[in-house]
Amino acid sequence: MTSHGPTPAFHPGSDGTDGALASRAEGTSLRDRFTRYYSLTKPGVLYGNVLTAAAGFWLAARGNFDWFLFIALILGTTLVIASACVLNNVLDRDIDTKMERTKKRVTVTGGIGVRNAVIFSILLFVIGMGILIAWTNPLVVYVGLGGFLVYVVFYGMLSKRLSIHGTLVGSISGAAPVLAGYVGVTGAFDASAILVFLMLFLWQMPEFYSIAIYRRDEYARAGIPVISVVNGIKNTKTQILIYTILFVISTLLLPIFGDVGIVYTVVMGALGLYWIWIGIVGLRATDDDAWAHRMFRFSLVIILALSLMLAIGPITP
Fold first, then answer.
1. What is the number of domains present in the chain?
2. Containing H/E element for 148?
């Protein structure tokens, strides 16, 4: 760890006294315990990734839908992603204590002890991978395992803390679900599989870089070398615009392969041009935080629209 990395901090549950506090906290009602364990899975991140996995599946299915395979893939993928999120919460306790939006996570407050969180993560992983191994295909298993390792090890444990390029590494794992969904149907990599992976990879860059602008002070306080902290906001805005343009181009390449038609092209083209326009406006914006919030909010519109259009694109004109 470099000198600018986060400094290990004291965490509830790190000795006998706080371990007892964590145990008492976990001894409350069943509903409260469920809520705490559920929060460990980072539901916002979890369901966003599951949505793209479903979109990849629907795109590859092209109307020939296998519901059993779909349910198995979505359930297994959900559990594996949830496992990674839980483990990431455990690993990020030192960072989370220093950031406003994360300091109330149960792994920080002692609502769930580290040992129980790790056991929960292992159970989710074993069950999820078991489902993928039993009822999907080897490519899905490899993509799921690869995404898990990249997110937990190469992103969470290493690049996020050590390098400005952590976002690039994290975006690989973030693009894995849509790829898993696609190859779950085809059982093979093809040009469209690579393209949907690229779309999700590129989308995450302006999305996270926008967050890095309006949460710049929090990342700086936690010692996380995000681009806005290391290179400044002006450079971050330029990178956001570049990646937004590349994302839009990638979405408009899909019709070339005959997977989608004019409806997809018009919708994604119009939304993409508007997102680029927001990025251009940002270069001259004086209220950086307000603009970054706007850019981030529209990134959510974009990913919802993309997921929908990937799903219905093959069956619409």
1. 2
2. helix 138-149
Q: What one-letter code names the amino acid at 291?
A: W
Q: Is residue 6 part of a domain?
A: no
197 Cβ neighbours under 8 A, 6+ residues apart: 175, 176, 178, 179
> In angstroms, rounded to a whole number, what is the distance separating the alpha carbons of residues 280 and 242?
10
Query: Which residue stretches of 62-91 are H helix?
Result: 67-91
Contact (Cβ atoms closer than 8 angstroms) between residue 294 and residue 278: yes
Same domain for 179 and 71, yes or no, is yes
Looking at the domain assignment, is residue 102 inside a domain? yes
Q: Which long-range contacts (CB under 8 A, 24 or more apart) does 46-49 make?
A: 46/78, 46/81, 46/82, 46/85, 48/303, 49/77, 49/81, 49/174, 49/177
* pLDDT in single tens digits along all 317 residues of the chain: 333 333 323 233 333 334 444 444 455 788 889 899 999 999 998 999 999 999 999 999 998 889 999 999 999 999 999 999 999 999 989 888 888 777 888 888 888 999 999 999 999 999 999 999 999 999 999 999 999 999 999 999 999 988 999 999 999 999 999 999 999 999 999 999 999 999 999 999 999 999 999 999 999 998 999 999 999 999 999 999 999 999 999 999 999 988 899 999 999 999 999 999 999 999 999 999 999 999 999 999 999 999 999 999 999 99
Distance CA 106, CA 108 (A): 5
Judgement on whether residues 71 and 184 belong to the same structural domain of the protein: yes
Residues 252 and 132 in one domain: no
